[in-house]
Every structure is written in structure tokens, then in C-alpha cells.
Predict the structure.
Amino acid sequence: QPAASVEHGGVKIAKDDVVRDDPTNNVPDTIFSKLGLQLHKRDQHPLGILKNAIYNYFDTTYPNKFDKFDDLCPIVSVKQNFDDVLVPEDHVSRSYNDTYYVDSQTVLRCHTSAHQAELLRKGFTHFLVTGDVYRRDSIDSTHYPVFHQMEGFRVFNPDDWEASGMDGTSYAAKDLKKCLEGLARHLFGAVEMRWIDTYFPFTNPSFELEIYFQENWLEVLGCGVTEQEILKRSGKTNNVAWAFGLGLERLAMVLFDIPDIRLFWSTDERFTSQFSKGQLGAKFKPFSKFPPCYKDMSFWINDSFTENNLCEVVRGIAGDLVEEVRLIDNFTNKKGMTSHCYRIAYRSMERSLTDEEINDLQWNVREQVENKLNVVLR
Ligand code: PHE
């Protein structure tokens, strides 16, 4: 007789479904219910409008070159998500704290890079993959556990770089930056951007592109020259390739002036009616800025405590009414006990919340945080 629920790091997962009947499952109902919504396939939704605008750039810059996929299943194997793109065995992204596991060998893809290897093996050499991706994370206006990415991939032949006098890697890196700077200009016109050197297991060298937005540098994509090992495994020993993965929400927030990432999920007509097919960058007019309500809570943490688990508990209760969960105090006493104080901001995008409603939520949060995370409230 299987238990009615299982726990991971204090997060309880309901089981009312065969797929979830596995003790290694850490996908809560709130996340499961997002599978299949495919916001990126709606032509009237900011994410669909943005996807089409990027398609447009590739179609005009490289006619008939790139194959497009936007319907690949987000439930993938650990092999596809991690092994195939050379993510080391001990990399944090493999942990239950960072990734949603459906069972020990199956995850909700945490990036569209999960499809690189299979498409390469199938013989595709120029492709774009758009899809919903899933990550356990903290809560604020630019992070949501489900978001959308577009992956780009391009393979070069020796002929391509030999004529240039450059080596394959330098040639691909140069072409990649040119392609993405062109894309940024296509989408934004004049915008301040900068390249940052970084690390990804599947590319070398690796870069991030940042865009200046609301007085911050916002990371909008990661990219680089594909590790030779990935090409080798699909029989392309003599080729060189580049890849990029961009976050559609981040770009759409800038382009449409959307102030909070939760809005992408809104079905309120005052949101949805502001966008139409092919209209990139129509500025969103906030229909409400209801006041936030802040609640603080302090507790002594234990060794298994993580902020991602806390956020999952809070979101499980408050859903999209939670706008931010922020650590505002952190100290360790003489006995070695560590206390955290979190400030939770509650705010609806659509209506004003009553004191009573918020107090109820907070009361529930306190109770579940204590019970599920085994921390001691102060
Ligand atoms: N998969 C990376 C991420 O999600 C982005 C990326 C894609 C980086 C392709 C390099 C190449 O952060």
C-alpha cells in the first residue's frame, strides 16, 4: 500500500496519479498543473509574440536554414537533461533542491539544452527549440519555477572556417556573438548590452549576454561554442558548433514592460487583452498596483533547510499571491544555532487582498513551515 504522500527536504508531494507514485518524486501539484499549457504557442501571448519575432529574425537572416521545434515533451530523462550535455555527476543542478524529479531517472527539463544531443543524432544541424522549463528556485519578481527558453544550435563544416584563416572555435564564437547581437538589435533596437565570460558544462568558451533594465543588468541568455565531446558522440568529429539558450520571460519583461513574472500566467482579460499577434513591444499598462502586504517570520533552521524548500511551501499555500520571499536577517548564536528571518510579500496582480485573507495565508505558512521543514519558529 503506497503512502498517500512523500517528502523531500520537507516538501510534501501529493500522490493521486501513477506518474507521481514514486518516492523520488518532488513535483508538487502547482507545478504539475503547468505541464501542457505551452504559453509559447499562443500567438496573442507575449511569449508567443516574442517567439515569433525571434523566428522572424532567423528566417530573414538565414532563409530556410533553421528547423524549429516548440512541441517537445518537457518530461525528459536524466540522461537527456544532464548526461548528454556533460553536466558533471556532482553538479548542483542535478540535486533535488534545484530540479524537479518525476522519478529517479526522469525530470522536468531544467533547460532546452536537454534536446541538443537527440536532435544532433537525428541529423539536424541548424535548429531552434522553444519550450517550458522547470527549476526549483527562490521567489521574486523575475523568478518563477516554470519559465520558457529558446535554444539555438548551429553546426559548421571545415569549409566554413578554413577560408577565413581562423580556427574553428574562434570562427564559431565570432559568428555566435554576431548572430545574437543582431537578434538583440532586432528585438530592442538600441539597448545597452554586455558580454560576460562564464562557464557551462556543454560549451567552451561560454558567454552570457546581459541587458540593462530597470537600473539592473539582467542576464538574458547563455551561450558558447559546443564542447567537442557532444559533437563527437553524434559522429561529427570534424565539425564545430555554437549553442545558445535564452530566457523568454526575461526578454519579454523588458520588451513589453511587464513588471512581474507571475503576470505571464494571468488569465485576467485586463492582462491578456493588451497583446496581439505580431505586436512586439506594445507597452503593458498596469491595471492595478495593489499595495503589497509584508509578513515576517523567524525560525531556527536545521541542516536540511534550504530556501528553495521554503519557497515551495509558501507557493504551495499562497500560489501566485506571493510576490517575494526575502531573507532579511541571519545570525548564529553562541550555541551554534542559526536563525533566519524571511519577509514574505503578498500581493495580487488582479485585486486587493483583505487583512483576513493574508492573515489566514500567513497562519498556514507558519504552520506548514514548522511541520514540513522541521524548523523551530521564534
Ligand atoms: N542551458 C543553459 C541555461 O539554461 C543556457 C545555454 C544554452 C548555455 C546553450 C550555453 C549553450 O542556463
